[in-house]
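Why predict the complex rather than its parts? Because the way molecules touch one another can change local conformation, and only a joint prediction can capture that. The input here totals 692 residues.
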Amino acid sequence: MSSSPPNSSGPLLGLSSAVTKGESFDMQPASEPNRRNWMIACGAVGAGAAAAVAVPFLGSMAPSEKARSAGAPVEVDISDIPVGGVKIVEWRGKPVWVVRRTPEMVKGLEALNSQLADPTSDRTDYPVPAYAKNIHRSIKPEVLVTVGICTHLGCSPVSKFETGEASGISADWPGGFFCPCHGSTFDSAGRVFANKPAPDNLEVPRHMYLSDSRIVIGQDEQGEA
Amino acid sequence: MAAEKIVQADGLLGWVDRRFPLISLYKAHLSEYYAPKNFNFFYFFGSLAMLVLVLQIVTGIFLVMHYKPDASLNAAGIPVAFASVEYIMREVPFGWLIRYMHSTGASAFFAVIFLHMFRGLIYGSYREPRELIWIFGCLIFLCLMAEAFMGYLLPWGQMSYWGAQVIVNLFAAVPFIGPDLAIWIRGDFVVGDATLNRFFAFHVIALPLVLLGLVAAHIIALHEVGSNNPDGVEIKAKKDSNGIPLDGIPFHPYYTVHDIVGFAGFAILFFAVVFFAPEFGGYFLEFNNFIPADPLVTPAHIAPVWYFTPYYSMLRATTDVFMWVMVASAGLGALAFLRMSGSGLIKVAGIGAMVVLAVLFRVFDAKFWGVVVMGGAVLIMFVLPWLDKSPVKSIRQRPGWQKWLYGIFVVNFFVLGYLGVLPPTPGGTLISQIGTVYYFAFFALMPIWTRMGEYQPVPERVQFQPH
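Output of the joint prediction:
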């Protein structure tokens, strides 16, 4: 409304009498502020309407009921995992590792603390459930449950449980996980080594034991994740 | 273009304007583009058509995020495409709303476009110098029909499948090349997954791009000559000392704001349907389409969507018996050429063509000519600017009896549409045949009837009541 066409003839354009007789478009008599107020009011309502219209469209991009239901907890039978072996299950589209650790793997965890970025799992980006906030990052020391996604940019690391030169990593490799994408390394409790691209330890999902041979991932005593 | 552009704006606007004709485009098409001040209700439908186009594109984009064009059966035995539409309706947050907006939008598009074309028809908006605007518009109409037809296949319901089967078989009716043509269109020997996927490609990207290009051309052609108006007065004939039409007002802010009111009114009706009657009694979302496509069983009552029914009536009306009417029309055409003044060569060629046509009308099946009649009903609109020989543009200055002709044309179109929805009956077929003849006679005989009668003089200035 503020730009008036140059040299427009007011009276011939059939405008309402208040804005004719030689006044250009953007001059309002002081007694008639109504039009500008109406324009502002309508503009505000229009902006609100536009925001309201965006809601269903943007909302439709959120996970559907099917995607949500595909995120339900997963039960796992752990009785057939050999000592020193790993079982991979899918939960919410991600790989979850269930590792049956050897006693040596568990005993060697304390000594690694000085080499780790976050030895006591204090960082909050992937909060550890209370029952896993310990040196072995699990409910039972011999069974590790962790999400097999590197906390750097999301590749899935490979397991490297052989120690030393045989692993192909280094002579003093204590055993754990190695991410091939950018070289981050994790120990057998999923804790990330210092000075590596990944900032966080591997995520421990909420889980609980239904029996000695069965766990459920994505659910614990407090409910579903 | 001027060699040195003197830009008045400062700051960011000036920086852009020195590199892109932003301000001159704004002036040429908005703030200094002058439109007649006497636009009436019928002049809402152009901007409404643009609104519906944007609506269809936006809802379409969000639908394509979840839709799968796959005719194979999923684990539950339902075609994947059909199941994906049900997924959108039941599981995608607000999916039902987006789907209903898109399906209602398709019907709304045709309602708006029919009214938009009607405005052009009664006010003579197709007359010189606006013939090209009209031609672009007819092309848009053709593309829109193709776009709607292809979109309708995508839900892969019974109506989708069998409607596609019938329409593709129209092409099979073409003499000599028909069956091969139909196979090439389908990508298979029957309508199937190949057909579904290519129609998806056409519907989602190919035709929308063509439509956008045609709409741009349509508006550019319009802005080149300026809009017509209900009085048929050329507003550029009378300008003030600054070159501004006396009866013109700048499009912005007058018609931009005016059209927002149109949008609001449309939105009320549109969303009333979307929220309370999205199926519209089976006319917008047909009941048969809630059944997954079954290549082995055709539904008992098959009909095209409501916006195709007038043309469908004409197709069904073209029976073997009706072909004699066509022969008679060719005879009349030959007579017209005979009485025509001018070059002997054209007369001979014209009469020859009419005789050949009369013979072919009896040689080729009525099935083929039905397709021709249906297509001809749309194509004849292209030549309207050259059929109308009246001295005035607008219906307002035409003799009273011609106003009746237009009125009957409208009623006839509705009757043809209504009959197209119903199953065929002998009485219905006869009325459709009469209706088809009227439709074509209205246009084909225009060079004759528009030269008859007493016309009113075109006013000097538009009739406008300030309010």
